[in-house]
Amino acid sequence: MKNKVGVMQGRLLNKYKGRYQAHPVGYWKDEFQSAQEIGLDCIEFILDFNDSIKNPLLTKEGLDQILDISEKTSVGVFTICADYFMDAPLHSKDLSVSEQSYKIFIRLLNNAYKLGVTDIVLPCVDQSSLNCQKAVERFVKKLHPLLELAEKNNINISLETDLAPEDFGALLNRFNSNRVTVNYDIGNSASLGFNPVEELDVYGERITDIHIKDRIFGEGPVELGEGDADFSLFFEKLNEFNYKGPFIMQAYRDDEGLEIFKKQLAWIKPYLDNN
């Protein structure tokens, strides 16, 4: 059975308020029809900090709408990219921020269960980077109590970090739960100068969600094939593992989104077909 191929929410639509990546408030349903026409299996929903109270992931009515449009189009929502926690990290030094984020995460875990979600991607990059040992300790302390609910709901908390492979592996080993997994972003790793073989040797078997992107070392996103990501090496190494998760297209976008997406999907398709 082939892995599911999907798109990061908003990439098939015009930018929401000019933001590069955001939940498209008010017109998010339109993307399901486009995804169906392209032949995609799923959309990775975004929960971002801005306008979070308008996000359907956090309301019963919204969950019903997601389930309804998914059934009509056969385009599922199996994964969530929880960008909310980049702006309001679970491990924030501000206790009021940390406590509110903890409550939001519990709510998200319960609502994700109702959708049949398998993975919540928790970004620990940029503003939420685990860039010092104190941040790591706060993060471990805050995440531990959430694992019982994640296990009960059969949902992976899929970590995306900017940690070097050995440090990321050490972090994963702090949690005695198979529900703490890895989101692997091909482009972000290339931008950080990491070697995919070294990364997958440490935690390849724990990857449950993959973001397809290309970046130049130390710089931002570019079209697939134009950056420093070694897709051949990555996919060759990935074949050593029994990866069953989705491939989520988070590739470079312009203001409109759709045509540049189709171009890049065609570029990456041979790799996906051979996986």
Secondary-structure blueprint:
Layout: E1 5-8, H1 30-38, E2 42-46, H2 60-73, E3 79-81, H3 84-87, H4 95-115, E4 119-124, H5 133-143, H6 147-152, E5 156-161, H7 165-172, E6 180-185, H8 186-192, H9 196-203, E7 207-212, E8 214-215, E9 221-222, H10 231-238, E10 247-249, H11 258-273
Parallel strand pairs: 1-2, 1-10, 2-3, 3-4, 4-5, 5-6, 6-7, 7-10
Antiparallel strand pairs: 8-9
Helix pairs in contact: 7-9
Description:
Helix content is 41%, strand content 16%. The termini are close together. The strands form two sheets. An eight-stranded parallel barrel has the order 1-2-3-4-5-6-7-10. It has helices at 30-38, 60-73, 84-87, 95-115, 133-143, 147-152, 165-172, 186-192, 196-203, 231-238, 258-273, and strands at residues 5-8, 42-46, 79-81, 119-124, 156-161, 180-185, 207-212, 214-215, 221-222, 247-249. The chain has 275 residues and is of the alpha/beta class. It has one domain (5-273): Alpha-Beta Barrel (TIM Barrel). The longest helix is centred in the middle third of the chain and has 21 residues, at 95-115. The mean pLDDT is 96. The chain contains eleven helices and ten strands. α7 (165-172) runs parallel beside α9.
Give descriptors for this structure.
275 residues; alpha/beta; TIM Barrel; eight-stranded parallel barrel; 10 strands; 41% helix
- As for the number of domains, it is 1
Major sheet details: 8 strands, parallel, barrel
Q: What's the CATH topology name?
A: TIM Barrel
- Output mean pLDDT: 96
Question: Which runs of at least 5 residues are low in confidence (pLDDT < 50)?
Answer: none
Indicate the CATH architecture. Alpha-Beta Barrel
The tally of beta strands, per DSSP, is 10
End-to-end Cα distance, whole Å, is 10 Å
- Spatial extent as radius of gyration: 17 Å
Give the proportion of residues in helices: 40-55%
| Strand line-up of the largest beta sheet | 1-2-3-4-5-6-7-10
- Helical/strand content category: alpha/beta
The shape, in one word, is globular
